[in-house]
Write a structure and sequence with these properties.
The strands form three sheets. The protein has an eleven-stranded mixed beta sheet with strand order 7-8-9-6-5-4-3-2-12-13-14, with helices on one face. It contains 17 helices and 15 strands. It has about 425 residues and is an alpha/beta fold. It has two domains: about 120 residues, no CATH class; about 270 residues, Alpha-Beta Barrel (TIM Barrel), CATH 3.20.20. The protein starts with a helix and ends with a helix. It binds iron/sulfur cluster. The site of iron/sulfur cluster has 12 residues, from loops.
Length: about 425
């Protein structure tokens, strides 16, 4: 028989989750106090408009706010520096070079030891323009008193080469030739997709007269004629965003997320991307004691693979420590940080198999947590299950007046099974 108070709570799962979060108190003193990888999206727009873009990016605005204002960027720089992140990734959402002045401002001021900029390289249309922009990057980085290590990473694959506004192979050549000739104080690298391994790397090698060397299953090295080396890393093919409309799905030519991230699990089945330092180009997702944070171009931010979709915050309202404290008021964040994304995935597979299958089919770590936790009743069920686990292990308490305090502190209660039965009965989640 179903627990009557549980059935009542599931009738309004958003309200019930709010009430549970208000009643929940964790007892963990050493929540992370610093950042690991910090991802900043400078623009949601992109002139290239690839047909596989996971962000469905092009020059059409999808939201009211496509980029941070000048004042917000200064706030973001203070926030990133305050986070003491180990690495800043200027990336995603769209093409960061549409906001070149913001890139330069970040490079000259932000206090992090390492910075990586991911770009399509559409700006490298001529050798002259390429040299000017790369000179600006180098000069901005050298003005930074912290002397951060910098890598410029270009994305190259069949979709970039054949996009509505393509990045031509000679644009990539312009960057590599300029880098080899001028020797700036930063490194360059390339990223691609696994189905294009042996294709994209060969094309660019032919363009610049380089030799391709294999490093491991997803990394190659281009050895330029003067002996300088350029790493090439191949990521999984993601079937999210615009790629959902593609006829080819590259199944078999790409690893699944689980296969790809297997070597980076801290123990079998535990992949905490919420705390990792993303260093794919060095073949690493190193565990850290900090938090990975994504700051989007609309000013919202969250723990990467560590925050439920309804707990994102808006920049400018709190310090880094206050934001972390807010995120850790949610049992879901504890689950994702302590046990990782596969623990959440396994739970959803049991609770809502179709939601689980649709989320995994995208093969995209950036959308995985939001998709798994999309349905309101599933999100509430995971909150309950994670809270129960923490309470019975003595790592949290729930106010005794809360209507579900009894089952949440009952070690014999199988919360996941109880929630699954209610969700099945309600039949609301696909
Ligand atoms: S260049 Fe990058 S951001 Fe732009 S459309 Fe292509 S994949 Fe998306």
């Amino acid at each position: 028989m179903q627990h009557p108070q549980l059935v009542t709570a599931f009738s309004e799962p958003i309200l019930a989750r709010d009430r549970l979060l208000t009643a929940f108190r964790h007892r963990i003193e050493n929540v992370p106090s610093r950042g690991s990888s910090f991802f900043i999206h400078l623009s949601e727009l992109c002139p290239v408009a690839c047909e596989h873009c996971m962000y469905s990016s092009d020059l059409e605005r999808k939201s009211d706010k496509t980029a941070l204002s000048k004042r917000e960027l200064e706030g973001a720089i203070r926030f990133i520096s305050e986070s003491e992140s180990q690495k800043l990734n200027i990336t995603g959402g769209g093409e960061p070079f549409l906001k070149l002045s913001s890139i330069l401002r970040l490079l000259e001021t932000v206090e992090v030891p390492r910075i990586e900029i991911v770009t399509a390289g559409h700006w490298a249309m001529t050798p002259k323009r390429t040299a000017r922009i790369m000179g600006q990057l180098d000069a901005a980085r050298s003005r930074n008193p912290g002397n951060p290590e910098l890598m410029l990473r270009l994305s190259i694959d069949r979709y970039h080469l054949n996009a509505p506004r393509p990045v031509r192979i000679d644009y990539y050549g312009n960057v590599l030739r300029c880098w080899a000739e001028t020797g700036p104080g930063f490194s360059v690298g390339l990223r691609s997709i696994q189905p294009d391994m042996g294709i994209a790397d060969r094309m660019i090698a032919d363009e610049v007269g380089a030799v391709v060397q294999k490093v491991d299953d997803w990394n190659r090295l281009l050895v330029l004629p003067d002996g300088k080396t350029v790493p090439v890393t191949f990521n999984v093919f993601r079937r999210s965003g615009k790629a959902l409309n593609l006829t080819e799905d590259h199944k078999g030519a790409t690893k699944t997320l689980r296969e790809y991230y297997g070597p980076f699990e801290t123990k079998p089945g535990n992949l905490s991307l919420a705390t990792a330092v993303n260093d794919a180009i060095r073949g690493e997702y190193a565990a850290s004691t900090g938090l990975a944070v994504t700051l989007n171009s609309d000013g919202t931010f969250w723990i990467f693979c560590g925050t439920a979709p309804d707990r994102k915050l808006l920049l400018g309202k709190q310090s880094f420590a206050e934001a972390v404290a807010y995120f850790f008021e949610d049992p879901i964040t504890h689950l994702l940080v302590d046990e990782g994304v596969w623990a959440l995935s396994d739970l959803i597979m049991d609770l809502a198999p179709k939601t689980h299958a649709a989320a995994l089919a995208k093969n995209d770590s950036a959308s995985l947590v939001d998709d798994l936790l999309g349905p309101d009743d599933v999100r509430f069920a995971v909150t309950l299950t994670a809270a129960h686990d923490l309470v019975v292990r003595g790592r949290a308490t729930v106010d005794p007046e809360h209507s579900l305090a009894g089952i949440l502190s009952d070690p014999a209660a199988d919360l996941a099974a109880m929630c699954r039965d209610v969700i099945l009965e309600r039949g609301s989640t696909p």
